[in-house]
Amino acid sequence: MDPQSHLILTKKLLETCNQDSSSTIYSLIPSIDSQPLHLKGLFAHILENQPKIIESSIQVLTNKRTKSSYITDRLKEEEKNFRTILNRSLLKTDINKISDNKHSITLSILSHIYFDTFTKPIQFFLPHSSSTSAQFQFFEEIDYLKLKNYFYNNNTLEFQKQMLNHDIWEAKFSLKDFKPIVQKRLKKEKLLEQPLDVLSLTKAMIIRIGELSHPSINYEIIDYSIRNFLRQLNINKYLRVDREIEFLRKLETEIKTTLKDLI
Q1: What pLDDT, in 10s, does the model give residues 180-211?
Q2: Alpha-carbon dihedral angle through residues 12, 13, 15, 21, given to the nearest 10 degrees
């Protein structure tokens, strides 16, 4: 997707989790993959690289001292451009207020990769699986070249406006959306009307990227990747994702419906 669309979608995701939107700028981080050419579209779109990318992003964007590395050098090259893109967006966001909240930052960075599945295949689970993940069924239902042209020729203003004001972000659920055993837990814990959980939504995005893979990735690889990723972020509690997975599936449907009308 184009940078402006990423910003819109990520800001709204953060709001559904009751998170500060000052993490929105981090959704631009994986675009460092544009250079060098031999890594184009790869390095910053791999889950295994994310812990280092997250830490380096916080250091660079919050002006902390950093050691030179491929990640920090690329981030410093792009930082001014990131702030310019954010300043020109439809969002009313202070470009000088940059969050250091690791949980919301993690969601923002991974959201870029998740939303990229609407425009291109990604190899998210390297080196454990070389399968690509994307909205392949959606690609078969549309003219894929028109979709690519729409996003990469700065034609997306109407898409941005519609998604910015879409009621999907209210994240409303009915008990009938879930299996009986899940219904009981949601009622007991009074979760149905609560904001989505930022960590659970992050985990749900990883699961959905795995489910969108072709050829299909063995779930053991997805599960291992999630546990390894969360462990590196010092997140040791078990994260339930019933509402978050359901929300993402509904969101994907609305994004695809909106795009079909526009392209």
Answers
A1: 999 999 999 999 989 999 999 999 999 999 99
A2: -80
102: Cα separation from own chain's centroid: 14
Indicate the domain borders of the chain: 3-262
- Exposed (0-12), middle (13-18) or buried (19+): which is 257, by Cβ within 10 Å? exposed
Within 8 A by CB and 6+ apart from 172, the residues are none
DSSP the chain: --HHHHHHHHHHHHHHTT--GGGGGGGGGGGGGGSSGGGTTTGGG-GGGHHHHHHHHHHHHTT------HHHHHHHHHHHHHHHHHHTSSS---TT-----HHHHHHHHHHHHHHHTTTS-B-TTTTT---EES-HHHHHHS-HHHHHHHHHTT--HHHHHHHHT-GGGG----GGGS-HHHHHHHHHHT-TTSPPPHHHHHHHHHHHHHHTEESPPPHHHHHHHHHHHHHHTT--S----HHHHHHHHHHHHHHHHHHHHH-
Could you report the per-residue pLDDT of 110-124, keeping only the tens digit for each?
Answer: 999 999 999 999 999
Residue 214 phi/psi, 5° resolution? -150, 120
Angle between helix axes 157-164 and 242-262 (nearest 10 degrees) is: 140
Nearest-5° Cα angle at 136, 41 to 211: 85
